[in-house]
Amino acid sequence: MSERGLREPALAALSLQDLDALVARWGEPRYRARQVFEAVQRRGVLDPEDMTTLPLGLRARLADEVGKPATTLQETRQSTDGTAKLLLSLSDGQRVETVIIPGSERRTVCVSTQVGCPIGCIFCASGVPGLVRNLTTAEIVEQVLQAARHLGGGRPSHIVVMGMGEPLLNLGQLEPAIRLWVAKEGLGFSPRRITVSTASTSALVDKLIATGLRVNLAVSLHGPDDATRSRLVPTNRPGQVETLVEAAIRYARRTGRDATVEYVLIAGENDRPEHADALARLLAGRHVHVNLIPLNPVDHRPDLDAPSGLAAKAFARRIAEAGASVTLRARRGDDIEAACGQLALKRAPGTGEGA
Ligand code: SAH
């Protein structure tokens, strides 16, 4: 909990222990803490005024001293393939996007951790404004709660921290959010159903290991060597391709999770047979899974294209034949600009400017 005496952070950021302490301080019976926690974290009731099972006095005090939800659902866009994009507005007028990706047996929520992003991968729209600000724990947690509300009875089954922003540069706010998602009195997510994707550094991967959170990790590699990666990920430093792969393997060993690298396929940049061979050599015998993502088009770089479907399959086959484990990701939600790299806070055509 932040500075005592000041307002508590938004309700959605409070752990059960925080709420225990709060109700004890207020002289309320202890079971109220659990009641509030379950209402927020399990049922997604974000506004204390809506907690109709609580006495009026407690509702009012929560509203008064803890305050309003950190996010407000402003707009929903639905893709023809079932993907939905929620546009959430924040208390300072910033906005953030959350994507819900349904599968045959999954309902995956893709959450953002920053407004904008400081990394600036050349093919990703989220980095175009640079870093605007980090999201707070409540703003991160509420994205999943808002998605759960959108889904009605169908709870989210997986969380991927692959929306706007670089998650490990905001680990301080992300870590408590993950702990809230896995809390058994809340949504009770298994950490193996949560994946954090990072384009940062091996040092930050080690920081994630040190939290003891056993979530899945995906490392955004995008090039088999530093020269290629540096052209695509401007923060890349000499030696970083190797240190990131080593960090992914270390992460896998320490946590018992698989190591995955992501590789966005861009025609003419990193999709030639020699790139596939170099990637296969880099990963030979290292038990790292490769997830190939054909580029989703972005407005700010109309010159960048995905390879053809056949070329992408050939790239995947070449890596598989060299003995690596590889999947080619299908594109989802790009008709509403909800696909990887397309989150850029544009409004739907014709909706005008809103609050
Ligand atoms: N910042 C984190 C998480 C967000 S992006 C990271 O970079 O890992 C999740 C994945 O989508 C990353 O691998 C990212 O490189 C990829 N991505 C970004 N823009 C894309 C685009 N236009 N097309 C396809 N994948 C993209």
Layout of helices and strands, plus pairs?
Layout: H1 16-25, H2 31-41, H3 56-65, E1 71-78, E2 84-90, E3 95-102, E4 107-110, E5 114-116, E6 131-134, H4 137-151, E7 158-161, H5 171-182, E8 194-198, H6 202-211, E9 216-220, H7 226-232, H8 240-255, E10 259-265, H9 273-283, E11 288-294, H10 309-321, E12 325-328
Parallel strand pairs: 4-7, 7-8, 8-9, 9-10, 10-11, 11-12
Antiparallel strand pairs: 1-2, 2-3, 3-4, 5-6
Explain what this protein looks like in three dimensions.
- Strands 1-2-3-4-7-8-9-10-11-12 form a 10-stranded mixed β-sheet. A two-stranded antiparallel sheet has the order 5-6.
- It has 355 residues and is α/β, with parallel strands linked by helices.
- It has helices spanning 16-25, 31-41, 56-65, 137-151, 171-182, 202-211, 226-232, 240-255, 273-283, 309-321, and strands spanning 71-78, 84-90, 95-102, 107-110, 114-116, 131-134, 158-161, 194-198, 216-220, 259-265, 288-294, 325-328.
- The two termini are 30 Å apart.
- Strand 1 (71-78) and strand 2 form a beta hairpin.
- The structure holds S-adenosyl-L-homocysteine.
- Residues 121, 123-124, 162, 166, 197-199, 220, 262, 264, 293, 295-296, 298, 340-341 line the site of S-adenosyl-L-homocysteine.
Class by helix and strand content? alpha/beta
Strand elements, count: 12
CATH C-level class of the largest domain is: Alpha Beta
Enumerate how many helices there are, as a single number.
10
Hetero groups in this structure are: S-adenosyl-L-homocysteine
| Fold-level CATH name of the largest domain | TIM Barrel
- Shape annotation: elongated
Number of domains: 2
Beta content comes to: 15-25%
Largest sheet at a glance?
10 strands, mixed
Helix fraction, binned, reads: 25-40%
Average pLDDT taken over every residue: 92
Per CATH, the architecture of the largest domain is Alpha-Beta Barrel
Radius of gyration: 21 Å
CA(first)-CA(last) distance: 30 Å
